[in-house]
Design brief:
The complex is a heterodimer. By secondary structure, chain A is of the alpha+beta class. Chain A has helices at about 25-40, 75-95, 100-105, 105-115, 130-140; strands spanning about 1-10, 15-20, 50, 55-60, 65-70, 120, 120-125. In chain A, the strands form 2 sheets. In chain A, strands 2-1-5-4-3 form a 5-stranded antiparallel sheet, sandwiched between helices. By secondary structure, chain B is an alpha+beta fold. Chain B folds into 6 domains: about 1-95; about 100-200, Leucine-rich Repeat Variant (Alpha Horseshoe); about 305-415, Leucine-rich Repeat Variant (Alpha Horseshoe), CATH 1.25.10; about 435-580, Serine Threonine Protein Phosphatase 5, Tetratricopeptide repeat (Alpha Horseshoe); about 605-740, no CATH class; about 760-875, Gamma-adaptin ear (GAE) domain (Immunoglobulin-like). In chain B, about 60% of the residues lie in helices and about 10% in strands. In chain B, strands 3-4-5-8-7 form a 5-stranded antiparallel sheet. In chain B, strands 6-9-10 form a 3-stranded antiparallel sheet, with no helix packed on it. Classes of the chains: A alpha+beta, B alpha+beta. The interface between A and B is large, with 54 and 71 residues.
Chain lengths: ~140, ~900
Amino acid sequence: MIRFILLQNRQGKTRLAKYYVPLEDSEKHKVEYEVHRLVVNRDAKFTNFVEFRTHKVIYRRYAGLFFSLCVDITDNELAYLECIHLFVEILDHFFSNVCELDLVFNFHKVYLILDEFILAGELQETSKRAIIERMGELEKLE
Amino acid sequence: MNPFSSGTRLRDMIRAIRACKTAAEERAVVRKECAAIRTSMNENDQDYRHRNLAKLMFIHMLGYPTHFGQMECLKLIASAGFPEKRIGYLGLMLLLDERQEVLMLVTNSLKQDLNHSNQYIVGLALCALGNICSAEMARDLAPEVERLLQFRDPNVRKKAALCTIRIIKKVPDLSENFINPAAALLKEKHHGVLITGIQLCTDLCKVSPEALEFLRKKHTDGLVKTLRDAVNSPYTPEYDISGIADPFLHIRLLKLLRVLGQGDADASDAMNDILAQVATKTESNKNAGNAILYECVETIMSIEDNGGLRVLAINILGRFLSNRDNNIRYVALNMLMKAITVDAQAVQRHRATILECVKDSDASIQKRALELVYVLVNETNVKPLTKELIDYLEVSDQEFKGELTAKICSIIEKFSPEKNWYIDQMLKVLNKAGNFVKDEVWHALIAVISSASDLHGYTVRALYKAFQTSSEQESLVRVAVWCIGEYGDMLVNNVGMLDIEDPITVTESDTVDVVKIAIKHHALDLTTKAMALIALLKLSSRFPSCSERIKDIIVQHKGSFVLELQQRSLEFNSIIEKHQNIRSALVERMPILDDATFSTRRAGSLPAAASTSSGASLNLPNGVAKPSAAPLVDLLDLSDDLPAPSSSGGDFLQDLLGIDLSPAPTQSGIGQIQKAGTDVLLDLLSIGTPVQSSSPTTDILSSSQNGKSPIATLDALSSPSSLSAQATSSARAVPMMDLLDGFGPSPLKPEDNGSVYPPLVAFQSSSLRITFNFSKQPGNPQTTLIQATFINLTPNVFTDFIFQAAVPKFLQLHLDPASSNILPASGNGSITQNLRVTNSQHGKKSLVMRARMSYKFDNKVTLEEGQINNFPKDLAS
């Protein structure tokens, strides 16, 4: 199960933080700080997995952005790595050539996409097309 | 109406925040915004409510407090329109979690929305419920969710399935109701619903044995068929991930099959074929393909045994291990860790590759590989593996060295086939990573060295050589200095050469040089330097020719700013200068520490430690006594309420040792000296761990109760025949205080203030008479000073005369050393000894004492005992 999802830039600014387990605000800030420190200095050829407390963080870097998933220690790391990539592809599709600024100014939309992609810490939909279509339907209702 | 597309005020705020150059500026902007939002909220401004909340979410993400927006979420959720609800639910999930009580207020809105006619609103409510629902909400809303599992729109069904996972995790009791609807989802044609349904079933199996049983019986075959269809399905671009068809569905199916197959031979049997097919047919050149293979391997490892499949799985892991992608190697190491319980032999085959992974530059891989190597070590491969690991120790990263060192030490200790090898390997580790070795490891090493008497010479020579190259490795230096102190003569004389050794020429002066370097080295700490001083003292006796030089080095520390070093320096100097006669006995070799005792002490059983140490400490040379533990307890039996031997034994012991327990102002000078005297002895018996407390009482207790430190055990283990006893016997009549005569005034003599109390014949037998003379210090009526005079009534000379005394708990007894231990015959002379008794119940109880005398004539030891209760009454009033 996914414990939390973080999207941070290289400076450690949080661009998206979704927690599927309850944490105090102070604890959340600590987690965000620690995860950033863990992933930011790792060599590109290193594994995309780092142990974090009693869980592990699967992260992937896209330009200056780090996508990090904190998952259970027994979970399939490789699958979550694909999961991150799929999410990035969806964002890329939705914003057509996504960049950090899109995510900053449309942060609420990123959360909505995420809610169509992952729910209760589990994968909800793996079809890019289905999610984009769904987002379109929801936009029409605004 | 749309707050995001038209108004642009959210946009403006984000821009303003982004334009801030300093954190202070950003705080100012946020403060202003928050103030505006609060005002707007207070005015109950409908139009701006969702825009305000959107801004708050952004502010929240930056890390500012936004709890004041929680109620706004609830209001938005309760409003009718989809856009309001949407932002309300989003805010609810971000700003609140299941622990906030406010959440209770939203249950009703959620219930209405779950029953809403608009399926998009139902979707919003399900999403919020799935992400933040509490146990109470789960109970309240479970029926709605259950119904929605059969909703016509697949988007709602898949959301309901995942929402159910959260509900059954919060309230496992509810899982019963969900078994049937969940199982129905396994037959779904809609991809998203199928994938979430499988996930739901997997989680159901975890919380409910009935669900597991039901699904295993009814659905194993169906799931196998679904997986077969997925494997053989034609290309579908929609679910394709870099050329691999639908890996997420594969992985979820494999996971559920694993749960069903575990511990059930029939179910395992049913899935064998398809697992073999997945394992052989999946392409392994893409990450997605490897993710499937990885999941498949785990399933094969977990389900009931099928030899052929397992070979296939281990081979896949072998392929993973040689992959160039670090991620793949990482998961391989991870999985081999699980495989080792299934087939250790097969994992052993990959040992060489795994060992290479320990040397990888990626910390994640190193860590996994090291753990795996650690479990792979056994008696047959320990030697080559240890060699590899130690070789790598030299070049490994600093951050990794600590962990690596700990594992190597643990391996060496666990599997060492012989002491020689153990010592060799430990020396190598100390040489390369001495600064990372934990205290208990080098303590254990010293214990082993000490017990391997045929290797003493070899070890000290090896350490001498190692010191030349690695004098900055703290624990190496400590062990080297200890061994040189103990076995320095073997180093110089090449005693006990092994065949493999080349003879080396080391002069006595070279040996002293080593210790001198250790003491001067700026980077080494207090413990090491204190150990070095002891080594010097020992060498001063072993190498008479260097004695002067050693003295000079010791004397240099007289002015040390570190109290411990200064004190040792002064004490040792005094021993070298004034006490040639006892020095050699004082610095004899440590008694051999036997492994069994060492390991029990190390396990830290405190009661045992306390009793041994009190027993052993009795052997501390106090110049007067050499009693054993048992008679001590006997002596105590005159007290009305028998105290626990262990605790009062300690007190009593200190009395016997002549330690001043009550440092009254007038006696402080003596207290200091006596403390020093005790410390010398304690220190001589210990190899390190400077005791730095100020009170002599705690000195003794702390060093003797320090069960964890093997150092303390060394003194505790000195048997009656050991160092301390030898010191006593050779020191004979030399009273302890003499050792210290260079320091200050001579021991306190009772002031002759007219002896207002009559003398008392305390004990008389056919051979011995004891007379007590009493006096008191003015202003201190509780304390009675007693001068005991012993007179020999027989025509034989008594040697080894010892007087021991015990008092009940309310009294405190302090014995000064006796004037001699030889009692001339026929009253031609006497021994005197001063006692000090402090009565804590002065005025209520009178003094009482039990005494025991032992002496030798004609080589026979005679014991006499007596109880003294005829003390003058006025002593107690």
